[in-house]
Amino acid sequence: MSRDARWKALLELLVERGRLDVEEAATQLEVSAATIRRDFDQLAEQQMLVRTRGGAVVHGVSYELPLRYKTARHASEKQRIAKAVADLIAPGEAVGLTGGTTTTEVARALAVRPDLASGSPALTVVTNALNIANELAVRPQFKIVVTGGVARPQSYELIGPLADGVLGQITLDVAVLGVVAFDATHGAAAHDEAEAAINRLLCERAERVIVAADSSKLGQRAFARICAAESVGTLVTDVAAGPETIGRFEEAGIEVIAV
For the chain, how big is the Rg over CA atoms in Å? Predict the structure, then answer.
């Protein structure tokens, strides 16, 4: 196992459990305890975890795994969700994309749609996510608009008042939200309040709002609210979302597409 793969696995285990012992992690990943101790020390230097005697704990009460370490989590579900979201977008529309692993997959699904291979423009994509803009900028048929702002390293998103200035001047057909939590009562949410504020503004500028979220995000709450559930027109999720969970969103007036 490569170091990057090992670090990704360690961080994911840490997020799930909150605490990891060296021996436990070594057994789980089938490597030596010395390797795990070295990994923990290096991850602690990057402020991705806090070292403890004999192990590690998550970094802070609102710990958020950086985007580059989240790409493999629920990967197949996110790709199915992304294709279903992309199918809801019509040629020529102006689309807002927030940052996140699922919305990144939406951008990739849009990029390979045959009916969006040409046009003037085929789509207008407005995003505050640097990685999404970077992937789509090579598509000449897409008009890419990037907000200003200060880059947030966990999600590659631009946040702050400079982003507000751009978003206040545009109108969108659809906003696609990637979220860390979506609940039928409490709405859509993010870990970071500045990120939530930009995502909220994207929603306000759009005629319709789609939440793209795998089932692990549903029924969850997070620190910073993006928008109320009634602001969302469509939820696209995976089939692991149970009937009861789906029913709660449908009762709130949200169309649910499970793929």
Answer: 19
Distance between start and end Cα atoms, the chain = 32
Beta bridge partners of 96: 126, 175
Mean pLDDT of the 171-175 span:
98
Strand residues in the chain grouped as ranges (E): 19-21, 49-52, 55-58, 94-97, 123-127, 142-146, 150-152, 157-159, 172-178, 181-183, 187-190, 206-212, 224-227, 234-237, 255-258
In 3D space, the residue among 105, 19, 41 whose CA is nearest the CA of residue 67 turns out to be 105
Candidate from 56-60, 134-138, 234-238 with smallest mean pLDDT: 56-60
Residue 110 tokens read as 């849009």
Report the distance separating Cα 203 and Cα 210, nearest Å.
9
The one-letter code for the residue type at 49 is L
At a CB cut-off of 8 Å and minimum separation 6, what does 99 contact?
67, 127, 128, 129, 131, 132, 155, 156, 157, 178, 195
Q: Which pTM value belongs to this model? A: 0.77
Distances (CA, A) of 92 to 121, 138, 201: 6, 18, 22
pLDDT at site 9: 85
pLDDT digits (tens, 9 = 90+) for 204-231: 999 999 999 999 999 999 999 999 999 9
Asked if residue 56 lies in contact with residue 24, where contact means CB atoms within 8 angstroms, the answer is no
138 has pLDDT over 80:
yes
